[in-house]
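chain below, 327 aa
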Amino acid sequence: MPDALFTTITAIIMIPVAFFLSIIYLFLLRKFSARFQWRVGPVISMYADLKPLLGRSRILQPLYDILKLFGKDTVVPSVARKTLFKASPYLALACAFGAIFFIPLPGVPLLSYLDDSLVIASYLLIAAVMFTILGAASSGSPWSAIGARRESEIFLVYEIGFVVALFAAAMTYGTLSIWTIATTSSLPLLLLNPFAAVLLFLVMIGKLGIKPLDIAEAETEIVGGPYTEYSGKYLGMLQLTKGFLFYDMVGLFIVLFLAPMFGTALWIPVYIISAIVVVLFLSIVHVLHPRWKIDRAMRSYGLLIAVFAILAVIMVALALSYNWVVV
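prediction:
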C-alpha cells in the first residue's frame, strides 16, 4: 500500500494533469478528425500574421470553448424541475472528476490500489452519464426529453458491455484492484482477451458520443438533445464532464489492457503514445460513419456489444481453465 502522504501529494498533482490531458484528448479528436476530412482543424502553431490577434497556438481550443461558457449568462427554464436541473451538472462533473483518482498513471497508483477500486471507478463513470440524463429529463424541453430518451436507450446497451469488459479483466487477473491488474506480471489483457478490448472500445464510442453514436445530441435533428436547455456555467460543467470522461475512459482502457506497463514512471512516454493511438482510432471511427438512427443503433450496436461480450466471456473461461495468467 502506498504511503498516505505520497498518495495525497500525487492526488493533488493529478488534478491539473488529468484536466490538461482531457483537453489534449479533445484537441486530438478534433485535429485527427479534421485532417482525415482534409480540413485544417485547430492549428498547433498559429499563422504568423494571426499570432498577435489569436495567440501562438490553438491546442487549448477545447478549454477556451469551456471557459467561454462560464462567462455567459445561465438560464434556467421556468418549466424545469429546478433542483434536479441545477444539481445534475454538478453531480455529473463530480462523478467524472472523482473517477480520475482511481485510474493510475505509470508509477502513480493514486487510489487504484484499493481492493474494490475497479468497482468504485465503474460506478462513478456510470453515474456521470446517469446524472446527465436526469438533468435533461428534468428540463421540461421536448428536445431534451428526446435526447435523454435516446441517451438512456444507448446507455442500457453500452453499460452492459462496460460491465462485461471490466468483469473480463477482474476475472482474468483474479482481483478488483486496478493497480494490481496494472502491475501483474503477465501478458497484457489485449493479447489474452482481445474481444474484451474491442468490447471496451465499443463502449467508449457510445459513452463518449462518438459517431455514429452521437444520436442523443444530434444538433441537426433535436437542437442539442440533453444539452438543449443548458447554458452558461451549467453547460460549461457538462462539457467539462465530457472532457474528464474522455480522460477516464482512455486511461481505463490503457491500464486494463496494456498492463504491466504501470510499475514505474519510466513508462509514462509509452502511456502517452498509447493514449494518442486510442484517440486516433476513435477519430477514425468518428469520421468514417454518419450518425445512425436510433433503431439501427439499438439493433446494430446492440448486436456488436452482445457478440463481443459473449466472446470475451468465453476467453475468460479459457484463460481460467488453462491458467494463461502468470501472477
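The radius of gyration is 20 Å. The chain has a mean pLDDT of 83.
thats it, cya
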